[in-house]
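Objective 1b: paired records.
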Amino acid sequence: QVQLVESGGGSVQPGESLTLSCTASGFALDSTPMSWVRQAPGKGLEWVSSINSRGHVKQYADFATGRFTVSRDISKNILYLRMDSLKPEDTAVYYCEKGWNVLTRTGRGTLVTVSS
């Protein structure tokens, strides 16, 4: 059974950093591309980043380029999203998803709140 469990969210001030984790089960992370998507309060899903199955190709939305970094630990089957220089507009629930450049949500997500 495929399961994706996001964690690591929290409340931070602008300029601070957070690293989100996505623990996958029921499949291997190196068998499929993976993506991060987010949903800000009152808004639709927004794609954030994708990583290919081999882990050597990464793509980011314009707002994430230079601030966010997607990575993974194959031995632990965990996907990460390191977020630096966070801004209030990054406030959202973040989800990890199977696939490349997807706009879906499967798990419960993890809430990131950026506020001074």
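Objective 1b, second protein:
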Amino acid sequence: VQVVESGGGLVQPGGSLRVSCVVSGLAFSRYGMDWYRQAPGKERESVAGISMLANSYYADSVKGRFTVSRDNDKSTVYLQMDNLKPEDTAVYYCRVRGQPYWGQGTQVTVSS
């Protein structure tokens, strides 16, 4: 199983960014997917997730600003991040729910 995140980068406060996560090696449509992030000096935290039926959840800190979605035909889960804040700066990871498969992460930096 391979999990590969992409799409991170540098963005100004108030800007938007979409990160993607492609999964291969398993039946993607049968699994929920979760996004996490880890800022320097902090523990990894849950950000958002989407079930195999496309039900989603969000951490309070990102609710109303982030949107998680999935495309089963492309075995891809997305995290659309709007109105970004400096405190959103972190490495963003995705994970196959309930499985020990993580990606390498993609860096998101929000700074002017």
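The mean pLDDT is 97. Residues 9 and 108 are 5 Å apart (CA to CA).
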